[in-house]
Amino acid sequence: MKASIQLKIMGCRLNHAEGAFIQGALERQGYSFTIDPATTPDYVIIHTCTITAQAQREAQRLVRGYLRAGVRGVIVSGCAASTDKEHNFEANGAAAVVANSLGEVRYGTDADANAIAERVLFALTHGAVEGEYMPSFASTRASVKIQDGCNFRCAYCIVPDARGEPRSRGVDDILAECDMLLSKGFRELVLTGVNTICWRADGLNLCGLIRKVASDSRVGRIRLGSIEPRTTERELIELMADPAAKLCQTLHYPLQSGSNNILKLMRRHYTREEYCEVVEAALETLPQIGLGSDIITGFPGETEQDFLDTVEIVDRFPFSNLHVFPYSERPGTPAATLPHSVPMDARRNRAKQLIAIGERKRKEYAQSFIGKAVEVLVERIDDEGVGRGWTSEYLETRISGCTAAEVGSLISVLPHEVNLDVLHATINQK
Question: Among 134-148, 246-260, 411-425, where is mean pLDDT lowest?
Fold first, then answer.
């Protein structure tokens, strides 16, 4: 009998998508996975993040902790594994390290750990391949990795070092994976990547790919993650307005700062005015579009006025999903050596202010749907017998009167109440 494995995923949505590939690929070879905290597995795979120095240190701490708990070996993969030039993971006891951006495995002496690491590398570099394995997703949504890598080189970001240069999967590979997932009953496909909007292959851009994927009648809807400013976002907004594209009406559009001074220091490639013009165009085309953003507070050189410039933009627009982070120095990035460091207390206080505004904005946004029919993909029936799912605009929804027959279906519901930021709805009888 093959070894049991526990999978620990750190970081972003793409890492979680890759975790599904890793689990599916190993299950295909007879390995079992456990999530029971009371069970000690034979091996643990840590799929790491390296966006901050703290994330890198946390991954090393996890290696030591799992070994103290009695596992036979720890396999480390992901971004921190690819930037670990000092081999600190091995020094902390890792049995094997998968530097996936480099396409290599650093082997140890444990033959079973090495075999697991080989399969992890295969999953991370090939995606799902018909006959090889099916990714392991727990809902009616499935992620399809279409792109990896980035060359934007923002001053605060280590991802280009961790993930490498941009690489796009070919159309035929993507469509084959979509076909496999749709044949298993998945209704929502999430197209993922490090910088998804930069996908280019076979003479198509991302919008062309979306139309190809949407042409399959089994596709319920398509969802995207973050979209970088000054790429092809205007074309994407127009596509969201076309029902045939089946594209969720959610635009996650990173601002990072509302100050032109700070944007320049960050090496971002847009101004606050250009950012606002696109958001205004999106709201004019789709007045109830779900609008998300990422913001960093306390970047080196950020004055109180720079911060207020950010607050002004957040106050101006109906953001429904804000991700706010106090700046954290990441060794190896240009920003880590910039002068005029902002005290950590100020960074955190500014983040706290924006988080509070974001929470208020999300509640207000959710309340705007009361009495309006919306479409929800039902993902499960919870322990209370209530249907659970998400709208196209990425609002969590509880649906009374929903049965198991609706799981995996797109249904029209009528929200009647908002609790925190969750819609409570009944099936729309029209």
Answer: 134-148
Rounded average pLDDT over 38-67:
94
- Closest among 248, 288, 305 to 373, alpha carbons compared: 288
Q: How far apart are the first and last CA of the chain?
A: 54
Asked, for residue 134, whether it belongs to a domain, the answer is no
| HSE toward the beta carbon, residue 245, CA cutoff 13 A | 20
Picking from 130, 99, 138, 153, the residue whose alpha carbon sits closest to that of residue 19 is 138
Supply the pTM of this predicted model.
0.92
Burial of residue 48 (CB within 10 Å: 0-12, 13-18, 19+) is buried
Looking at the structure of the chain, the number of domains it has is 3
DSSP assignment letter at 247: B
Distance CA 307, CA 269 (A): 19
Does residue 189 sit in the same domain as residue 273? yes
Q: Across the strands, what pairs with 252? A: 226, 292
Q: Which helix (H) or strand (E) holds 307?
A: helix 304-316
Based on the number of CB atoms within 10 Å of its own CB, is 329 exposed (0-12), middle (13-18) or buried (19 or more)? Answer: middle
Which tokens hold the place of 331? 């060794």
Cβ 255 vs Cβ 233: under 8 Å? no
| Parallel/antiparallel/unpaired status of strands 321-326 and 374-381 | unpaired
How far, in Å, CA of 329 to CA of 348, rounded? Answer: 14
Question: Kindly report the CA angle at 410 between 405 and 412, in degrees rounded to 5?
Answer: 100
Indicate whether 116 and 179 sit together in one domain. Answer: no
Which pLDDT score is estimated for 359? 96
Domain of 391, in residue numbers: 374-427
